[in-house]
Each structure stands twice: as C-alpha cells, then as structure tokens.
Design brief:
By secondary structure, this protein is mostly beta strands. The chain has three domains: 21-61 and 450-788, YVTN repeat-like/Quinoprotein amine dehydrogenase (Methylamine Dehydrogenase, Chain H); 112-273, YVTN repeat-like/Quinoprotein amine dehydrogenase (Methylamine Dehydrogenase, Chain H); 279-404, no CATH class.
C-alpha cells in the first residue's frame, strides 16, 4: 500500500528561539528541530539577509583555494538543440553547470535550505526539467543533511521545493523516459537516527504529491534505483540497513537482514526480493546497482560485503593507521555480482584470480559505505566501471579489473555518453573530471565548487597566512593579500602546510614559523618552517611542499590507552606561547612546546565502555573536542567533549568542576570561547548534527559557568559551529552556522546576517584578525572568505 505525502506551503515566519536564563535546568528533553523546521528557518534566513543593517552589508571576498575543488557526488546531462549542459552535484557546494564543455562554470543551486546534494536527474523527455535530491547519501562524518527534493522547469534558473524534506539523504532519482511528471526517489533516510521517511517514493504529478511505494523499516532505506529501458514499470531498488553512530561508522550490525535488491514490475505497486546468489543478508552493506541498456536482463551489483576476507597480520594497521586487534579480520569490502535473468539469480564475477581478489580487497578499504557505485557501458554489457578508492574498468564483466589513473581518488559517480562511450564524466572527492578518449586523459574542473575546510587559523605574519585542513586534500595555507584594500582581496592558490586531512592548527603568536598540527586522531607534531626543508616556505602554487616534511612528533606518553577525535584539539596558552595543551579523553599540558607532557585532568568524558571499541573499526568517541584558556586569567580552562560534557578548572588542572548540568541540552560541544574582556564570561556553542538536530544552541555565562543564558535569540537554525568575540568590543559577537555567518552588536540579544553575497554554506570556523581588521571564515564546501571589519563597531 502506498502512503500519500502532499506538499504543504512553507510560511515565511520568523522563528525566535528566545532569550532565557537557566538557573534550574528543565528536566524534559529538548524539542526536536527537524527538516521541516529547517525549511521554515531558511525562509527566515532569507528575510534576514534582505534586511541586514547597513554596516554589515559589505561583500565577502573569496580567498580560495583556486587550485582545490570539493567532493562531487553526481553528474547529469541535458542535451537540447545540439547543445550540451552538464550539471554537477557536490556534497556541500550545491549544483554547478557548464554550457561550454567545462571551460566556464556557474553555480545554479547555492541559495537553498541546504546545498548538500545526493543526486541530480534531468527528465529524458524534457531537458529543461531537472530534479535535485538534497542530502549526500555517502554519509561521511562531516556530511550535511538534506531537506528533500527540488525541481526546476527552466533548466536550473529557478527552483521549487517539492517535498520529502525529512528524508535527509537521497541516493538516486529516476525520471520516466516519456513523462517528466513521473519520478521515483530512492531515499536512504536520516544519517544518525531512525526515521520513517526512507524507502522508494513516487510522484505522478511532478512532485506535488508523493507516495511511499516501498518501505522496510525506520533503519532501512533505498540508496540506488534503476529502470528497465524497455519497460518503465520495471525497476530495481537497492535497500541498505544502516545507521551512523557517534562511535562507529554505518556498518552491518548484529540482526541486520533487510538489505538487498528488490524488483517491481508494476511501477512500484508491489516489490519482490531478487537476491538469490548475493551474499547472505547479514553480510550485505551498501549495494550499488546498474542495468545494461543494450541487454536489459543483465544487471550488476557492487556489494559492500561484510564476509571476512582475511585475518589481519600481527602488527598490521587499519585504514587509519591504528593497530588491528589480534585475530581481527578484514571484511571483503567489495564484490561484483551479475544477473542475466532480470534478478532471478546472481553470480559473483570478481574473485576468480589472485590479482582481482587483491584488487577487490583494497577496492573500498573498510568503508564501502562511502562508495558502492557501479556503471555498465551503454553499448557493451561486458564492460563495467566500479567506483571505490580508484575508478576501475573491466572488459569481461568483472573477472578482471584495472585501475584508471589521472584523477583524484574516492569515486562517487560516473556518466557515460550513450552516443559516444569515449565521453565520460566522473565525480570524486577531488571534484569533477571529464574525458573524451575513454579515460586515457582527464580534464579537471577546478573552477567549480570549492574546498571543504574543517577549520581556520590565522598567524601574525605580514601578510597574514590562513591555515586550514581540507577534506581529502590535507592541510593547506594561503596568504591574504590586502595590498588593494580589505574589500578587494584576490583569490589565491593554497600551498601545502603541516598537518593532515583532519588537522587543527596552532601557530605561535610570537614566532609564526612554529606551527602545531596533527594527523589522524591526535598524532601531534611541531614544525619549524624556518628550518631548511621545512614545509611551507616557497612551496609550489599547486600545493606541493618545498622539501621533505621536517616535523617533530610531540606525543604525550601515558600508561592509559589514549583516545583522540578526528579533529583533536590543540591550543597555545594566550599567556605563554611555550605552554601548549592537547586533548584526548584527558587534557595534557606541556610547558616546553610539546617536548614533555603532564596529564592535568581525569577522564573528562562519560567513558561508557559500551561505546568504546565496539568493533575493529570503531571511531574514537568520548574524547575532548574543545579546549580554551581565558585570555584574562591564566590557568582558567574550559573543556568540552563530543559526548556533551563541559568542565572547568581555575588552577590549571589541580581541581575540576563539571558544568554539564548547567545547560539543559546535551550535544557535541562545537566551541568554547572565554571572553577577552571579563574574567568570568564564557561563550559555548553546541551542534546537533550528530543527533539530526537543527536547533540553534548558543550560551553565555558571566559567572564562570555557574549559570547560563541562551543567546541563540533569532538565529534561525543550527547547527552552530563557532562563536567569536570582537576583540575591540565585547558587545559584538560573530557566529557561524550551516546557513552562513551572523553578527550581533548587543551581546547576542539579536543577530543579523553578516555580508550580502555569501552563498548558503556551512561556516565551519571564523576568526577575527585584530591587526588587519578583517573577519575570515572557512566554509565546508566553498573555501575561505574574508570581509572588511572596519565598518563594524570600533
């Protein structure tokens, strides 16, 4: 039975969170701010952006990097009147188009409630009709949720939201070959929580109404969908049972048996499982499927297979460089299956010789849930392409595989021109690539989208260097050229910098050559850029270091097993730059720049053993994620953890007090900012991303955390990723959310949108450079930007 979901109008109402003083926290759970709330909040944001007060209406200058793009998720093609338009969807950078074969690019979907894109589809019968499914279905830890499906009937000039908001991730959209109003959506559902809005949805009126035509459970969604080219009533859906936990990737868990391939022959009215020959249901992770256009009874499936492929060797590490437990096994991770009878039976084709077995063992690492995409050549059912860490080609149905070079790694999409199969378009973690010679050479669309920055650090050089780490591109830095004025800063290429893909940075304020950074999970280092061979000075514009890395490891040694987050915190004391702090589940302090360490805290997490090491690929959880020392009082520290705890010490760690219960919401601590003016004042932000929660959580205390007041006020929605205090005026505050940047001139009583030309994008970090009088932001999807702050409060 199908379920109807009519589309409701979205009121342009202002949503006020309110200003409340919390001295006796309420016992009830906080309200759930869902995707429908997000849509209404974005309408509020749009209104706010149009009414920004004059001092804050300046334009943001794009800083770059001009040599790095962002993670691309899908591609679609519209051919009309002998001309071709290519649409490229990005994980958090919206949708971009080119009408001149990649020579120039234009953003066509950058001002919406979310710019996280899972899939894009052009109606075969009308190239002006384009459907966009928001919410990246690859569900990285830093993925942003979507808000449903959007539609354009004028080739991307304008967009209308047409429903399915609470699906939050969409893996595939399929449009009927002759009727652009008949559309199917594979919705994979919430990333972190169970929900009903997942499965296969169908509309017969262009998205005005939707029917849920296939559903399994609140944890099993549809992530792939293909249609038989002979008969549009025949479709195949790949179902995936999964949830991402704060302490584990979305892996197959005990009791999971709902994933597999299902078929309908009556346009979605009924579905039958067609999984005979596939791995047993308890071993099925994400499955990608494709159908041969030239032989439609032939389909292929790329299965994230959880059968154990081999046992780890003694001393062998996992994909993140962590030692594998003794006796632990590596899953197979990727296998190719084929059916030649429309799904009645499947046969494995991918492990018939040692070379192919070894390639499949390394095809997707241990994280096939990021990939599992497969394509069949439109004219040759024996030629297939699989997407994992590499793009792979097989000319014999998967019996042998060869990697295809010339591109960035980590592949998520491929379009093959049915009229000329030498023309292909590929999407991966580096962006969009195209080839006209069947993959011999590839052209990179560096001008499209922007870098996915996790963070931002500014040094005191002249000119200023901006540091940040970029998803799948390591750490980079670029100079901020203010020679032509603060409102005309040119974009630049960024060069390599110390640190890895997920690294915080701390630069010595007195010696900008000293840079602290880290690799995965807190492998801290100190780099002196003035040393010959040091990384950064004179590095090439394309991001290559000038010489070999000359880092000094500065790892605390401790008898306890240390846990550090992906983005482990590291700070320099504002009172003495030789004092540095590093965060694990404990806080460590060094008084000699990391050469020796002392543990100054107990475990500041909940230390719940049920959420630590639950499988060989567990993610470090219950760790310190934010640390700050008061600029006014030495040894006054505030510490926040990923499991929502907050602690403080006034004596450098001799005694600790917990502040967690003083705030009624338990969420990931996204920022701790002690005031530069008042000793007892502290600002705290929390993000609800890991709870599929779009609430805005911003708090202020003026009594060292004994009581807190919400200053979220009229911030339309969260997550709130960062807050900063203007170093010239304590009444002026800045905040970064998943919508953009905000400013308050009255201590958080009210907020305004900062700047008038910023795309809708997650502001991951924000810094104010006092000497240069500029605000700089790092975004997760559109690179770095800066704005002149001289017009703000003096």
């Amino acid at each position: 039975m199908s379920r109807k979901f009519p589309i409701a109008a979205v009121p342009f109402a202002v949503l006020l969170v309110g200003v409340i003083t919390l001295r006796h926290p309420a016992a009830q759970a906080p309200p759930k701010y869902d995707a429908e709330f997000l849509l209404k909040a974005y309408a509020t944001y749009t209104t706010m952006r149009g009414s920004t007060p004059a001092p804050f209406q300046g334009n943001w200058s794009y800083l770059g990097p001009t040599n790095v793009s962002g993670r691309a998720t899908d591609v679609a093609v519209a051919d009309k009147d002998g001309r071709r338009r290519i649409y490229v969807a990005y994980a958090t950078s919206g949708v971009w188009k080119t009408d001149d074969d990649g020579a120039t690019w234009q953003a066509v979907f950058e001002h919406q409630a979310t710019t996280s894109i899972g899939d894009i589809a052009v109606a075969p019968s009308n190239p002006d009709v384009v459907y966009v499914g928001t919410g990246e279905a690859n569900i990285f830890r830093a993925s942003m949720a979507g808000a449903g499906v959007y539609k354009s009937t004028d080739a991307g000039r304008t967009w209308t939201h047409i429903g399915l908001a609470d699906s939050q991730t969409i893996g595939r959209i399929v449009v009927h070959p002759t009727n652009p109003d008949i559309v199917y959506v594979a919705a994979s559902g919430h990333e972190w929580t169970d929900n009903e809005m997942r499965g296969v949805f169908k509309s017969t009126d262009g998205g005005r109404n939707w029917s849920k035509v296939f559903y399994k459970s609140p944890r099993t969604g549809a992530n792939d969908l293909v249609m038989d080219p002979r008969n549009p009533s025949v479709l195949y859906a790949a179902m995936w049972q999964r949830i991402r936990r704060k302490y584990s990737d979305p892996r197959v868990e005990p009791g999971y048996r709902e994933g597999g391939v299902f078929k309908t022959t009556d346009a979605g009215a009924t579905w039958t499982e067609v999984g005979t020959g596939l791995p047993a249901p308890e071993f099925r992770g994400r499955i990608g499927i494709d159908i041969s256009l030239s032989k439609p009874d032939t389909l292929y499936a790329l299965v994230d297979n959880y059968e154990i492929g081999r046992v780890a060797k003694p001393g062998e590490n996992d994909a993140y460089g962590r030692p594998m437990p003794q006796g632990a096994g590596f899953i197979k991770g990727a296998d190719v299956y084929r059916t030649d009878d429309g799904g009645k039976s499947w046969k494995q084709t991918s492990r018939f010789d040692e070379a192919t077995t070894n390639r499949m063992n390394n095809h997707s690492g241990t994280y096939g849930w990021v990939f599992s995409q497969i394509r069949v050549d439109p004219t040759n059912p024996e030629q297939i392409w699989t997407m994992g860490l590499a793009l792979n080609r097989s000319s014999d149905g998967g019996r042998t595989l060869q990697g295809v070079g010339g591109m960035h790694s980590d592949h998520h999409g491929l379009w093959i021109d049915p009229k000329n199969t030498s023309v292909m378009y590929n999407t991966n973690d580096g962006g969009f690539y195209q080839t006209a010679d069947a993959g011999k050479t590839w052209k990179f669309a560096v001008a499209a989208a922007g870098a996915h920055f996790y963070n931002l650090e500014l040094d005191n050089s002249n000119p200023v260097w901006a540091y940040g780490s970029i998803q799948d591109h390591g750490s980079r830095r670029g100079r901020i050229d203010l020679s032509k004025g603060r409102d005309a800063v040119p974009a630049m290429a960024f060069e390599s910098a110390p640190g890895g893909e997920g690294s915080n940075h701390a630069v010595d304020p007195n010696n900008p050559n000293i840079v602290y950074s880290h690799g995965f999970y807190g492998n801290f280092s100190r780099t002196d850029l003035s040393v010959a061979g040091g990384r950064g000075r004179g590095a090439a514009a394309e991001g290559q270091p000038a010489g070999p890395q000359r880092d000094t490891p500065i790892q605390p040694k401790d008898n306890d097993e240390l846990r550090a987050q992906w983005m482990a915190p590291f700070i320099i004391s504002p009172h003495d730059s030789s004092i540095v702090y590093a965060g694990y589940q404990f806080v460590f302090r060094s008084k000699n720049r990391g050469d020796a360490w002392e543990k100054i805290s107990p475990d500041l997490s909940y230390n719940d053993k049920a959420q630590i090491g639950v499988n060989p690929s567990a993610i470090p959880y219950q760790t310190v994620v934010q640390m700050a020392e008061s600029p006014v009082k030495k040894d006054l520290l505030y510490i926040g953890s990923d499991d929502g705890r907050i602690h403080t010490t006034i004596d450098g760690g001799k005694e600790w007090s917990e502040l967690t219960s003083h705030i009624p919401v338990k969420r990931w601590i996204s920022r701790l900012v002690p005031s530069q003016f008042a000793e007892g004042t502290i600002y705290i932000t929390q993000r609800g991303r890991e709870d599929d929660d779009f609430g805005a959580y911003v708090w202020k205390s003026t009594d060292y955390g004994k009581t807190f007041t919400s200053i979220a006020s009229n911030l339309p929605a969260g997550p709130v990723n960062v807050i900063r205090e203007d170093p010239r005026n304590p009444r002026v505050l800045y905040a970064g959310t998943d919508f953009g940047a905000f400013v308050s001139t009255n201590g958080g009583a009210t907020w305004s949108v900062l700047g008038k030309n910023l795309p809708s994008v997650q502001v991951a970090d924000l810094q104010f450079h006092k000497r240069e009088n500029i605000v700089v932001i790092a975004t997760y999807g559109r690179g770095m930007w800066t704005i002149d702050a001289s017009a703000f409060a003096k």
